[in-house]
Every structure is written in C-alpha cells, then in structure tokens.
Write a structure and sequence with these properties.
The complex is a heterodimer.
Chain A: H1 9-13, H2 18-24, H3 26-44, H4 51-76, H5 86-102, H6 108-132, H7 137-155, E1 174-175, E2 178-179, H8 180-199, H9 201-211, H10 213-218, H11 223-249, H12 260-270, H13 282-301, H14 306-335
Antiparallel strand pairs in A: 1-2
Chain B: H1 20-26, H2 28-46, H3 53-78, H4 86-104, H5 107-132, H6 136-155, H7 168-172, E1 174-175, E2 178-179, H8 180-198, H9 200-210, H10 212-217, H11 222-248, H12 259-269, H13 281-300, H14 308-328
Antiparallel strand pairs in B: 1-2
Helix pairs in contact in B: 2-13, 3-8, 3-11, 3-12, 3-13, 4-5, 4-6, 4-11, 4-12, 5-11, 8-9, 12-13, 12-14
C-alpha cells in the first residue's frame, strides 16, 4: 500500500484543490470541525460555553484520549497492526488495580505502578504474538478483546469493587477548576509522546516501519522491536486509563472499558491514522479526542443513551476512514505513490 | 504466496500424493473431527446429561446457526477480509423477522424479510469495503455498533415478545430426529462447497485472498465478488435470525451479541487462513460443531459462562498457531 506523505508538506507544496488540501491538513480540518460543533452546541445548550462545563468535559476526554494515543502508535507501525483489545485491557487492569488496593492492601503508589506494569504485560502478550510468532494483529487482538474482557468478569463474579483508599480520588479532583488528571496525566503524556514520536529517532522508526517496512529493515531499523514496543505502549496507556477511570468512578468496574476500543480506533482514524500505517499525529489525536468528547456531551445533553453514542461513533468512523481514503487516492495519483 | 498454500481443500493436487491416507490424516478437517469425537465421548462419560437427546438437539440447533453464518464468513475470510458485524446483523434481522411474524403470521414472509434485511446490511458492508477501499475491520467494527443502535431503536429498548409460533418448525422441528435447521445448514454447506471447489467464481475467491492485485490483473472481478461475499454473509445472518426466532420465540435487546466471536472462531478453527486464500466450508462446519460442543461443555461442567470469551479467544490463538506452523513447515 502506498503511504501518505507526512502532513505539512502539502501546505508548502501549494495546490489548486482547496477543499482536498484542507481535508489533507488534518489538524486544520479538525479544528474547523470542532469550531462548528462547539458553535452549534453553544447555540442549542445555554450553559455549554460556561468554563465549568468545558473543563468538566476534559475530565472524560482524558480516558478515551489516552487509549487513542496508544492506538494511533500501534496503527502507525503498519503491516495491518491494530489493537482491538484496548477496552478489555482497561477492564482487566481496573479489576487488578481494585483487587490490589482492597484485598492486596498495597500502598497506592505501588498499586498504580503494578497496574501500569500489568497493562504492559497484557500489551506485550499481544506484541509477542504479532512480532515473534507473526500472527496477524487483527485476529490476535480480536481474541484478546474477548479473553481480557472475560477474566475480570469472573474475578468478582461481575461485582464492582468499591471502598478504595480515599487518597486515590485526589487524582480526579480539581486544580483551580481544571480536572487534576488533565494536568497530572494527560498533558504530560501528550507532551512526552509528541516529543518521542515527532522529534526522536525512535519516533522516526515508528513511522518508517509503517511507511515501508522493507526499506526500514534495510536501514537497520529494529522493525519487530519497534512494533512490539508499540503494543506494550498501548497496554501501558490502557493501564493508566484504568487507574484514572477507577479513580473517577470511585470504584473498579469489571466492564470499565467496554466499547472503548471503538472510541480509541475512531479517534485514531479521525485523527488521520490510516490502517495501512505510516500516518497519524499526536496533534490530530488530541483534536479528534476533543471532537468526540463534545459530540458525546451533546448526545448526553439530548438524553440519548450510550447505545446512541456508540452508533454515532460508528458512523463517524466510517466517515473518517472514507475521508482518509479519499485524501490518499487524490494525493496518491497526483504526487505519485510513496513507499 | 507459495504455491504450497493451495491445500487439498482447494483443487486436488496435480500430482496425486503417494500416500493419500497420510494426507487425510494430516488434514485439518481430520484433526478437528478426531478431537470432536474424543471430546464428545469424554463428555458423555463424565457428564451423562450431555448425551441426553434434548441437550444434543439444543447443541445442534445452536451449531446450525453458527454453521449457516459461518459459510458466508468463510468466503469473506477467504478474500482476506473479516466481518465482525454478523452478531449485530443477526440481532437486527431477528427483530425484522419477529415483527413480520407478528404482523402477518406468515413464516415465508418473515424469513424472506429477514434475509432481505440481511442483504441490505451485507450490501452496505460490501460496498463500503469494495468501493470505499477501507479495511473490512474498520467498516464492520463501525457497523457492529451502528446495527446495535438500529436494533435498539427498533425494539425501543424492550424485548420483543408474543411472537406467534409460525416459525417454530424451523426452530424446533426435526426430520429423522435431526433439527430441520441442521438439514438446512448441511444443504447450504454442500452448495457452498460445490461453489468454492468447482465454480469459476468460487475459485476466484481463493485467488483474491492469495494475491488481490494478481487476481485483478488476471481478470477476476474483485469488486463484484467482494460485494457478493459480504451480501451473502448478511443474507445468511438473516436466515440464521429466522432459526433464532423460531428457537427462542422472543428477541432480547442484546440478541446476537458475541455471536461474531463464535462464528469467527468456528471458521478459523476450521482451518480457514485469516490471511486469505486457504480454507473450506467442511472445516467451518466441523469448527462450528467444536465451538458448539465446547460451549455446551462449559454449561454441563458448571464453568461460569463468563469464561466463554477466554476459552474461545484461546482457541482462536491455538488454531492460528497450528495454521502458521503448518505453513512454515512448507506443507
């Protein structure tokens, strides 16, 4: 498959097809879309534009945003890599976290560390099958999607765990009105991941194996290690999401991550990631996260249940995948195939 | 792709093997059959309720639904695609079948309506995958959730009950002691096997899965066949929904949820390669039997039903491991 050239070049290259160019400048396009949705919401819902409401929205955005960041890195590495198991990993890690804190009586810091480690472990199982045994990522993570979802249900016979140590709830408190997890978790993760992905050799490895795996191998890029690390990162961020979501709900739920894989994949694809690999940015994912959050909030306000939100996300996923394909084809023919 | 990727379930090899018995013994179909037999015997001895007639009929009825949809899924996976929306599609079609039965009391109208609804769903999947050129997992994952919403909206969040029993023959009737739905699945399986082994279009499905660009250059109508396999899978989900309604007599709001995993497990366990280009309907039917017996084993052994995802997930991984091992050894 041809890979899409890095975004940013098109702006400098110039072109006559204004609309297509706008669509290809994904962050710009997402900003525009976000602005439209915000304006529509503000017109329909009187209290939408209050600072309090906007800030409370970001609390929810943290969880799906973290998962989408892991997802986008996996998808960028290409060769059909995708992680369908992210939601189930959140459920599993949540229950492990809850059990560690209540039955294990471990201190909070150790519980969080062990949960993150458990996330990496789950991700590494996916990565092991994909890179060492060379199973297709699609079927491995489809199998673990169901496997990881089933164990936490059995652990407590579907009963959520509450009575967690109160120190945990400070994580999802408020710092001058801003949700704590945004400042302490999300922004640092975005900055670090943005730096690693866009400004370090490791980041170039990730893109290079997605754009052209063979060329990357000839350039001595550790292809398998890089893809393995991407799956581990996805597990790590799922573990982090589990900690945040457990704190926000003040209980560890065995179905905490149910359906979250759809949100993560939708955000990654809307953010510009193509399943063929090699494309997608941290900035795109952050903007797409805000977009999906505002959309979910609007449906909440309208009184539509989660089934409606997942259905709408499905439509959004198809729309953004078709959009990616349109951009790819237009630029594929005009600029020649890259990769 | 190596030429050795064409297993015996494709055309028979040009040079007949010197040891035909060994080829049979080494085939995936034989392995599953032996395993299935051993498992059934063990279950019968350990849990006498397993071999009671009502229990076996129930297993066979569930397997029929798996096998019917599995036929379509086999063809989708042969073309190197996947359809994870079949569970939701079955749910939506079941609502259509139930509503039509309540409205008309005519079994034929209800079955045709269910199949038509399935065709519409499958066509949507197929057109988006083939013309939109988006990977099938993206389209069908999205459709899984969209269809769940459609089913939810059609049911207004309530169970559909009070369905007349006009379809109960399809659900519970037997001929020669075997459920009618099983005969239906066998008939469709026979047709599909003939199609895949002997019709040009059937052979083309293997070609698409082997190398889609090569197939296109060789004149295979890739777009048309891709749309066809998804539409067929949708239609079969509609038919399975008719069996489902006949069996249950009601439609829950979460009808068909998790069904996609069972179908994909049956196909993959049956030896169809997830990479495309290799597989058979015979294997899928045997895979469906194995999935059905294992799910029943969990019930009779009083294992929590919640473990089902773990067991089926592990089975899929093992089946793929065997498949890839087989390929790399150069068979």
């Amino acid at each position: 498959m041809a890979a899409v050239p890095r975004p940013g070049r098109w702006l400098r290259a110039g072109g006559r097809e204004g609309l297509i160019r706008l669509l290809s400048e994904r962050p710009l396009f997402l900003l525009l879309l976000l602005a439209i949705i915000v304006v529509v919401n503000a017109a329909l819902v009187p209290y939408f534009l209050t600072l309090g409401n906007l800030l409370s929205l970001t609390a929810y955005a943290v969880e799906i945003g973290l998962l989408a960041l892991g997802e986008v890195v996996v998808i960028i590495t290409g060769a059909g890599a995708i992680d369908l198991s992210v939601g189930s990993m959140v459920s599993f890690a949540s229950m492990v976290f809850g059990l560690l804190l209540t039955r294990g009586h471990v201190p909070l810091w150790l519980g969080i560390t062990l949960t993150l480690g458990f996330g990496v472990l789950m991700g590494s199982v996916n990565g092991l099958f994909v890179t060492v045994f060379r199973f297709p990522a699609l079927i491995v993570t489809l199998a673990t999607l169901y496997a990881y979802a089933s164990v936490p249900l059995v652990l407590t016979n579907t009963v959520p765990i509450s009575n967690l140590p109160s120190g945990l709830y400070r994580l999802t408190g408020s710092l001058d009105g801003v949700p704590t997890q945004v400042v302490v978790v999300f922004i640092p993760v975005v900055l670090v991941l943005g730096f690693v992905l866009h400004a370090t050799v490791l980041g170039r490895y990730v893109y290079s194996i997605g754009i052209n795996e063979l060329a990357a191998r000839f350039a001595a890029v550790p292809v398998r290690w890089t893809r393995f690390a991407a799956f581990c990162l996805s597990g790590l961020l799922a573990g982090l999401t589990a900690v945040v979501t457990t704190s926000r709900f003040a209980s560890a739920r065995p179905d905490a991550g149910m359906g979250m894989e759809l949100q993560a994949i939708t955000i990654a694809v809307l953010g510009g990631a193509s399943i063929a690999g090699g494309s997608g940015t941290v900035a795109g994912v952050v903007l797409a996260t805000l977009l999906v959050t505002v959309m979910d909030n609007a449906m909440n306000v309208a009184g539509l249940q989660s089934t409606w939100q997942l259905g709408a996300l499905g439509a959004l996923l198809i729309g953004s995948a078709l959009l990616n394909q349109l951009v790819r084809q237009r630029f594929g023919t005009r600029r020649g195939r890259v990769g | 792709m190596q030429s050795s990727d064409l297993g015996w379930e494709g055309r028979r090899p040009l040079i007949p093997t010197a040891r035909p018995w060994r080829a049979l013994l080494e085939s995936r179909e034989f392995t599953i059959f032996a395993f299935l037999l051993a498992l059934s015997v063990a279950l019968s001895l350990r849990y006498p309720q397993f071999r009671t007639q009502p229990n076996l009929a129930d297993v066979l009825l569930n397997v029929s639904q798996l096998a019917i949809v599995g036929i379509g899924m086999t063809m989708v996976i042969l073309t190197a695609g996947i359809d994870v929306s079949v569970g939701s599609a079955l749910g939506v079609c079941a609502v259509v079948v139930g509503d039509l039965l309540i409205g008309t009391h005519a079994a034929v109208v209800a079955v045709v309506g269910g199949v038509m609804a399935g065709v519409v769903i499958g066509l949507t999947n197929g057109l988006l995958v083939a013309l939109g050129r988006v990977h099938s997992i993206i389209i069908t994952l999205a459709m899984l959730n969209i269809l769940r919403l459609v089913g939810f909206a059609l049911l207004h969040g309530n169970w559909l009950t009070g369905i007349p029993s006009d379809l109960s023959a399809l659900g519970n009737g037997t001929v020669l002691g075997v459920p009618i739905a099983w005969w239906l699945a066998m008939g469709l399986g026979g047709l599909a096997t003939y199609f895949l082994r002997s019709r040009p279009s059937g052979r083309h499905l293997y070609a698409i899965g082997g190398d889609v660009e090569a197939a296109r250059l060789a004149g295979v109508r890739v777009t048309r066949l891709t749309v066809f396999v998804y539409a067929l899978t949708g239609a079969l989900a509609g038919l399975a929904a008719a069996v489902f309604v006949g069996q249950q007599g009601q439609v829950q709001t979460n009808a068909g949820s998790g069904f996609e995993l069972q179908v994909i497990a049956a196909v993959v366990i049956g030896g169809t390669s997830i990479l495309g280009g290799k597989g058979s309907v015979v294997g899928t039917v045997l895979g469906a039997l194995l999935v059905g017996v294992i799910r029943n084993a969990l019930v009779v052994a009083h294992v929590p039903a919640l473990f089902e995802g773990l067991v089926l997930g592990a089975l899929i991984i093992v089946a793929i491991g065997l498949d890839l091992l087989h390929r790399r050894r150069g068979h």
